[in-house]
Specification:
CATH architecture of the largest domain: Alpha-Beta Complex
Largest sheet: 6 strands, mixed
Number of strands: 9
Helix content: 40-55%
Low-confidence stretches: none
Strand content: 15-25%
Strand order of the largest sheet: 1-2-3-4-6-9
Number of domains: 2
Order of helices and strands: EEHEHHEEHEEHHEHEHHHH
Mean pLDDT: 95
Radius of gyration: 19 Å
CATH topology of the largest domain: 2-enoyl-CoA Hydratase, Chain A, domain 1
């Protein structure tokens, strides 16, 4: 897919900012789900040298959910194909080989919540609200995504009530790392991205491979897997450069090899 109608981006240094851009509230339709999958499966479209992505919403809101007009035409016959495209979009963000930071302003509910929770972590404007409103429109979904951000009892309350909650209330749970004034949101996301992209692009991609595998592994099994990745990394010049720079008390110079 070479043409994108509902996503736009710009790259500065090693960080790409991608905007969800479907006015008025970035509600996602099937075509937009396909675009999200295409971009995050093949991040080369963002340009060479990108090591991290900030995912934001154009306009007032991050994403106000799925386009409900499409749900009106959904039935048990066409639902499986449509739902496959939805989950493939979320999974593409989650499995992206680069770190993805959600920068949430305004509303992130339903699909918007699932998109944010599929990212590696979330920063938000201090007036943002996040939630799962599916129960209010006769649907299911996003409860499991929400459980990545809050403890199980909190997830159940938020799902069963259908009420979005202020991002500030999710900070103590770690579901939102920080809240800042809206006009500082992208700067905060980029500040955190900068702390990531100073590291080797090889090591960053290994970290994302590790996260994908270890999330649901038992601790001992997961650590053994991580040790195996360390062994693989030892064959890369960037790994040795990081160690040499540490001993020589200088900034490393990475080549991506």
């Amino acid at each position: 897919m070479s043409n994108f109608k509902f996503l736009r981006w710009e790259t500065e240094g090693h960080v790409a900012t991608v905007w969800l851009d479907r006015a008025p509230v970035n509600a996602v339709n099937q075509e937009m789900y396909r675009e999200i999958r295409a971009l995050f499966v093949d991040v080369s479209v963002l340009g060479d040298g990108v090591r991290a992505i900030v995912l934001a919403g154009a306009g007032k809101h991050f994403c106000a959910g799925n386009d409900l007009n499409e749900f009106l035409t959904m039935d048990p016959g066409n639902a499986p194909g449509r739902m496959r495209e939805v989950r493939e979009a979320f999974f593409a963000i989650e499995d992206c080989p680069l770190p993805v930071i959600a920068a949430v302003q305004g509303t992130a509910v339903g699909t918007g919540l699932a998109i944010a929770a599929s990212c590696d972590f979330v920063v938000a404007a201090d007036d943002a609200k996040l939630g799962v409103t599916e129960i209010a429109v006769g649907l299911m979904g996003a409860a499991k995504h929400l459980s990545r951000l809050v403890p199980e009892p909190t997830m159940r309350w938020m799902f069963l009530s259908g009420d979005p909650v202020p991002a500030t209330e999710l900070v103590p749970h770690g579901g939102v790392l920080a809240t800042v004034p809206r006009d500082e949101l992208l700067a905060e996301a980029h500040r955190r991205a900068a702390r990531i992209v100073r590291h080797s692009p090889v090591t960053i991609r290994f970290a994302k491979r590790s996260f994908k595998q270890i999330e649901f592994m038992p601790r001992k099994v997961a650590y053994e897997y991580e040790q195996g990745l360390s062994g693989d990394l030892a064959g890369y010049a960037d790994s040795k450069e990081a160690q040499k720079a540490f001993f020589e008390r200088r900034e490393p110079v990475y080549t991506g090899r």
